[in-house]
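Weekly puzzle thread! Below is a chain. First person to post its structure in token form gets bragging rights.
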Amino acid sequence: MRRFLREHSLTLGFGGLFLAALVGQFFAGHADFNERQAALGQPLLSLGQYLFSADFLVDVAENWQSEYLQFFLYVTATVWLVQRGSPESKPADKAGLDTDENQQLGRYTSADSPKWARVGGWRTKFYSNSLGLVMLVLFLFSWTTQWIAGWYASQSDPLADKVSLGAYFFSSDFWNRSLQNWQSEFLAIASMAILSVYLRQRGSPESKPVGASHEVTDRSG
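Winning reply:
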């Protein structure tokens, strides 16, 4: 058990932080929602009612969709886009899909390579892009959830105009929720890419070795 915890500590640690933050958001969101309801003279929701409400769901979904969008764009854009000196980037002369030898495909696979990397055909092609595709699906699913939950929440808001689901997609509320999250994700990626050229974090795979030159690219420490 101790070995399992150590070898999976990154996933378990951030999974625990995720659950703690989600629970905190739930209680804070419930208090904030009821404060707004009371100010408008509207009925208050119990904790159970708020848990399954569109207001809670839309707040959760709008954060999830922006994170999955960030990772979808990051894992796909870094195939072609580079930043000299960043450990988050490939060297400029290696931009692109890389060779079969480096990717351990075809005759370069080994006995312990994933099955779909060895079989060839559409399955290998799909598996070669599976990380980006799954991130895209998760983004679209959570973004759609935000859209529907946001529309449903607006229907119960006495101050909001009642519009159709299709019309809500083009509303300022929906796009404000989306874009305010997207811009922060894009800023975070750009900041990490350029700051990691000049700054260091000893022992982190997201940083170059402390003594590495600012010009060194695609090297972690």
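Puzzle host: Confirmed. Bonus trivia for everyone else. The radius of gyration is 22 Å.
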